[in-house]
Amino acid sequence: MPELPEVETIRRQLEPRIRGARIERLEVLDPRWTRPAEPREVESQVSGRTIEALRRRGKYLLLDLEGGTTLIMHLRMTGNLILLEEGAQVVAVDEDEPGADDRYLRARFDLGDGRELRFSDPRRFGEAFLLPSAGVDARFEGRVGIEPLSGELTVEAIEALAAGRRAPLKSFLLDQAGIAGVGNIYADEALWRAELHPLSPAGSMRSEHAEALWEGVIGALRAGLEGGGASIGDYLDSRGERGSMQDEFLVHRREGEPCPRCGQEIRRIVVSGRSTYFCPGCQVRLRRRPRRKGRGRPVS
DNA sequence: AGGTCGGCCTGGCAGC
DNA sequence: TGCTGCCAGGCCGACC
Which of A24, A79, A176, A284 could bridge A112 with an S-S bond, Cβ 3.0-4.6 Å? Predict the structure, then answer.
């Protein structure tokens, strides 16, 4: 499941290799990929243009093209973006790996120099759409929030986002409009690192909790990046290789195993429809913060 | 208004 | 063995 570390890994690998390349032709093989736009429409706007940059915003990849157009792509659950070098097969990948499998090919960018950039996606949730580059910020406004690794995410920013919110911390972290790029895996990891219970209301955090969460989010994402992303299911980097982060998870998908910190058994619950792994021993459940009126009630 | 939930998809796997 | 049915979850829109 590509989240920020996986998408950023792909971006970092691809950017230096495709910047300046000319897309001879884009071929869209699955009309779902561009829906509701017609594939032809997108093909004609992309074909013949030079790639100026590959950026990332949250879990979106932004392919900036000459002439002020940006092709925005999202891998969703199972998408892969793989660069095939001249005349090459996907190296180091089994034939049945999704990235190497033509069955799942949704779009191909012919770079004209023998190389090909491929978007494949078994589950077809992935998408792409075009925007004038100047309109990208407006499109993301209110939907894609603070970039966690940009320096804009501070303890104060977390406190401001969480203030008054009764939603569980897990839902709070999954909300892309708040902090961008955190998905199910890294939300669990961040909460474990912060020693916070996923069901604690976001607004119940005090400063020390917000600080712990800040460290947890950044620590979990950095660890993911260092591992080259996590390969659960279909994730492959731009070379068609699997990341190693899945072996580094501290709680995610470790139900029944001992907590690496306190030894208690890791449990799985469902929070807003998503599998959530946590340690009941050391992840503290915060109570709803009493509203300050006069002296307030003593907390037991 | 803010939170929750179903739909979109398909592969993989548990269970019969 | 082969089938059924459930699970995975990012994001959006419908709903409460």
Answer: A24
